[in-house]
Specification:
120 residues, 4 helices, 0% strand
């Protein structure tokens, strides 16, 4: 009795490129990310972390915290009108405004120094 002819499933491809294409087509697993194929969000995240670790960011946080604390202290000592809840809400708003103003001033100073340095 003769064997029936069957199609071979393990046929080797003629080139490496064809083999790679066949493996990619058969693969159902998610491809692993490599260091060279990083997405834009990964790069942006790394840049943001570097920014947070910079001395300028630390100085801006310190300036904001100091000005906010000063505004809270001033508001607590000088304002005696209204209820306690309203007074606390106003104090927090003023502290936020003071912090934003202080950070804005400090950034302005830094940008002016950068402009001066780039001209020379």
């Amino acid at each position: 009795m003769a064997k029936k002819a069957t199609a071979k499933t393990g046929v080797k491809p003629k080139t490496k490129r064809v083999a790679k294409a066949q493996r990619a087509a058969k693969s159902t697993a998610v491809a692993k990310r490599t260091g060279s194929a990083r997405s834009a969000s990964d790069k942006a995240g790394d840049a943001f972390i570097k920014l947070l670790q910079s001395p300028l960011a630390a100085e801006l946080v310190a300036v904001a915290a100091t000005s906010a604390l000063a505004a809270l202290a001033e508001h607590g000592f000088t304002n005696n009108d209204g209820s306690r809840g309203k007074r606390a809400g106003k104090a927090v708003k003023e502290a936020g405004k003071a912090a934003a103003t202080a950070v804005g001033r400090r950034l302005g100073v830094e940008l002016d120094e950068i402009r001066k340095a780039s001209k020379h």
